[in-house]
Amino acid sequence: MLLRVGHRFVRVESRRRAGRFVQGLLAGLARVNCWTVAEAVGDRTPDGMQNLLSRATWDADGVRDDLREVVVEQLGDRDAMLVIDETGDLKKGVEPVGVQRQYTGTAGRIENSQMSVFLVYSTPAGHTFIDRELYLPESWAGDQTRRERAGVPAHNLFTTKSRLALAMITRALEAGVKVGWVTGDEAYGKDAAGLRDPLEARDQAYVLAVACDHRIPGAGGENARADERAAALPKRAWQKLSAGAGAKGRRYCLWARIRLRLAGKTGYHWMLMRRNRRTGDTAFYRCYSPRRVSLAELARVAGRRWTIEETFQTGKELTGLDQHQVRTWTSWYRWTTLVMLAHAFLAIAAAHTRDTPPPEGLIPSTRNEIRHLYAQLTLQPARRAADVLTWSAWRRRHQHQARQSHYQRQHQQPAPNHELQLEY
């Protein structure tokens, strides 16, 4: 993978240092920053790594484009989807670019944080980041002093997160990435002008979450809340369908949909609803497709959104996505791009290990396990390779036994009720 991006670096020293930086990100460090990465790869000081992020001459956006090509080549599938979401990194002080007190789902409250929007390429084979954009709040966008100090380019003005998401989706589609669907949470589904309408103009199908108070047109032309329309549906409108496989087996929920006939709109529009079988909690989605699709297909797409949550989790736990201590615009984009390289390596390696069935009693190698083996066998002097591999087999056997127990408990539950699909 590093060979594919090498031409984006002007000097060979920078190219080699970027390779060592990615190795350091995969070294299993308790804390990931320029100091710890430099020490892990044998540098005597962090100066070279800091220079790589701030002053060296290389094209981070070009590396992103090359990375996207590699990911599509290695994970590409006719069932590919694009998933959008944001994440917040908790930060101290006010100097790092984009940091202010704002709500972040990471903490579940208003905190001093830095927000960014990511695009994930998701297929049955695997999922990983293919694009990223830093969110610049209005307080930053209009403060020339802070902009200059953080090196924010003059053309980067305040842009909503939906517009950032649209820019990344458009970039991928115009680069030739073939996907069936776009999906994301309600922060993006609520924005018709910023995201839904432009996607429809491209005939790009989507399933985007919306809030329970989202207004949808009724049969008489009046607007009603989504939760009110859901409450009025008869019991026969709900079907037990799978949203895909989870860590503990198939994820079954009750699903229903309402056909929306919107004036001046072409294609098929629905309000999709997902109800938890135990709690009764209901989630809502605005859906569009240029062709008719089944309720089961919409449920499957909505269920794929979880892949970006897992990508954020593994990106932070395994490759230090949120642990950077950079302050400037350029350094943030470079750190994040190198993290994307490291994460893509793990995702692609994990996908390839699934091409060959594992020995009986073991689960396939996970990204976590591959990172561990890479650190032990490649980056650190192991006492004996056989010892490391024995521990790997032990962990995977334990995980296999746990998964089998979950599947056995699930099989004891009643089988899904395949009722006739009704459209409202």
Total domain count: 2
Q: What is the CATH level 1 assignment of the largest domain? A: Alpha Beta
In DSSP terms (H or I, runs of 4 or more residues), the helix count works out at 16
Structural class: alpha+beta
Strand tally is 12
Percent in helix: 40-55%
Uncertain residue ranges: 418-424
What is the terminal separation in angstroms? Answer: 49 Å
The assigned CATH architecture of the largest domain is: Alpha-Beta Complex
Shape: globular
N-to-C SSE series? HHHHHEEEEHHHEHHEEEHEEEEHHHHH
CATH topology annotation of the largest domain: Transposase Inhibitor Protein From Tn5, Chain A, domain 1
Look at the structure and name the CATH superfamily of the largest domain. Transposase Inhibitor Protein From Tn5, Chain A, domain 1
Computed Rg: 23 Å
- Overall mean pLDDT score? 90
Instruction: Classify the beta-strand content into a percent band.
Output: 15-25%
- Sheet of most strands: 10 strands, mixed
Protein name: IS701 family transposase
InterPro entries: IS701-like (IPR039365), IS701-like_DDE_dom (IPR038721), RNaseH-like_sf (IPR012337)
Region (Disordered): 401-424
Domain Transposase IS701-like DDE: 13-216
